[in-house]
Design brief:
Ribonuclease iii, N-terminal Endonuclease Domain, Chain A, Mini-ribonuclease 3, RNase_III_sf, ribonuclease III activity, cytoplasm, RNase_III_dom
């Protein structure tokens, strides 16, 4: 690669991070025993939705290095659109998470990705609990 991660646009890092995280989620779900494509897709969306990624990032923040925090800030402050299904702040935090994953991929920090991704199950379950409580109101 001719350019270093520092020279890349944060959205480019997020683009890569999105693909890396999606691949991990799909592999993880297969390892958990999901086999039907319909089930795989349904459960995968719980992991990759912006609100879950934003919540996952929030849990990671206290443990991030200074450089990782800078990558997150670059990702969060990037200008771009957002889908109607989520608010701007949540979407920017999800983009920041994806940029962080892209940074880890480019710098070959697999241990950091494993550490973060291992917390994804808890983030998904917590997100489901919050949604269930909101629906009860």
């Amino acid at each position: 690669m001719s350019r270093s991660w520092q020279e890349m646009n944060a959205l480019t890092l997020a683009y890569l991070g999105d693909a890396v995280y999606e691949l991990w989620v799909r592999t993880h779900l297969l390892e958990l025993g999901y086999e039907k494509v319909k089930d795989l897709h349904h459960v995968a969306t719980d992991y990759v939705r912006a609100s879950t990624q934003a919540q996952l990032l929030q849990g990671l923040m206290p443990e991030l290095t200074e450089i990782e925090t800078q990558v997150v800030m670059r990702g969060r402050n990037t200008k771009g659109g957002h889908p109607k299904s989520t608010d701007v702040i949540t979407y920017r935090h999800a983009t920041a998470f994806e940029a962080l994953v892209g940074y880890w991929q480019l710098t070959r920090q697999e241990d950091r990705m494993v550490w973060a991704f291992n917390q994804a199950d808890a983030a998904v379950e917590n997100h489901k609990a919050v949604e269930a409580n909101l629906q009860k109101r």
